[in-house]
Amino acid sequence: MSHEVVRKDEVLLSSKGRPPWYSPTGKAVPSYVIGIAGGSASGKTHVATSILRQLNHIPTCLILSQDSFYNKLDAEKNAMAHRNELDFDAPEAIDMQLFAQCVRDLKEGKAVNCPVYSFDEHQRLEETKYLYGASVIIVEGILTLCSPELRDLYDLKIFVNADSDVMLSRRILRDTKERGRDVDGIIAQYLRFVKRSYDTFVLPSSKHADIIVPGQDNDTAKVLLAAHVQREIDARSLRFRSKLMEQNAPRSRQTTAQDMEVSEEQEPFFTLLKQTNQLQGIMTILRDASTPRSEFIFYVDRLSSLVVEEALGMLEYGSVKVTTPLGVSASGMTMLQKSVVGVCIQRSGGPFVKGLRRVIRDVRIGALLIQSDNSTGEPLLFHTSLPDCVKSDAAKDTVVFLMDAQISTGAAAIMAVRVLLDHGIQERHIVFLTYLVAPQGLAAVYKAFPAVRIVAAAKGYDTEEWTFSLPKHATGTSSPVEMEDERSPTDADTGGSHHLQEAFKRLQFNRRSSDTPQETKKKAWIVVPDCGAFGDRYLGA
Length: 541
Known about the structure:
This protein is an alpha/beta fold.
């Protein structure tokens, strides 16, 4: 398990991708939340991190500190804080409403912008920290069990009990080394505020705890707690890709004119490009395994532009008056949406980006790294790299073109839509662009998110399950190869970002490191008739 320091008191731990955190209908399953309280320097953070180290196969874990939610101080109170004359240990010092709302949103799977607190400035800063995707959330702080609103959000409540002398000595060591405080000030603040708060608020809150853990020599307790949390997480594990394929299988494998039609129920959910001779000719070239890579790239870019142009026609337009170069007034149309972004599902969604940029000038691009588990075929979310407007209050008014090469069972598509909904994007503002869609995937996405619109270039007639035998290290990717008269696609073309590309490299490295010496098995569901691996054919396998 690797870790990323979000800031000094908050740590986001991640491992081998986050499996589905929602039902087949797209409804989110709440994260598991643990509340840990105890006196100042009792060992709360140590207990939290120790529990996480004991866990196995936990995708993402977050330790959220109460210290982030101190109330903002005016100039007078800030000056008192620097003189150690302000009580930071009473419930009134914490913005409990914001604290509870942040924990609630994280538990519901939503992205949040968490406050950032500076101990040097004794002030909550204007900047915030983006947090998303934790399946286990540990909330720690001296007052985390005092608020009934917070207690209602915890699945497990823990109180860390330590001797007062031990807590004082730990506090002196911590504040002198980490926060630059002097010993006299630390002791004065402890006697005036900290001890009184502990006796009045903190210790009485222990009656709400499900378990009380000693602040030292607690190895047995940590092992037992980790085992309990592991059982709870295993019980919430969701696997349903095979079920999606079975439940939404077509009645017949025969390709007929009726198979290509759009039902009244699916209109305007699904739009299939008009199947002209030109379009069918492009699809024939893409399906042909002998098509050279340079020619494949050319026709994918051409097809991307056609799909994007069709999708643009679904947005809202309004009347506008303009003046021509000769000074004549003319009536026209203008797009009403102020913010349109593209989000590609890496790696196969990357080829869409060049076509999108040809049609929409200066469009902002984000990406999701979603890869299938080799053994189960279930989608795993490894990384999100989204534009700022998606991670802010502007998300509710933002239209997202979500892009992937194909929709087979619909599992990855549902995961990607769920990520966008967790960030506040409206379901009706999501337009899924794809080259190829299977009936099973179309039905699965429609059942989960009927307000999402899908635009596809072609429709298959079935989805088949395949198991590939890959040689060792075959899961890695090679760099794009320069071709004559045709440059290779770059990160800018494919919607990649530095962080997401680095995450992809780490993913491939971890997979190679865990491969057996002989071979790796990979399970996948293929749209029939297929076009192969779009990402590999476009970027270079």
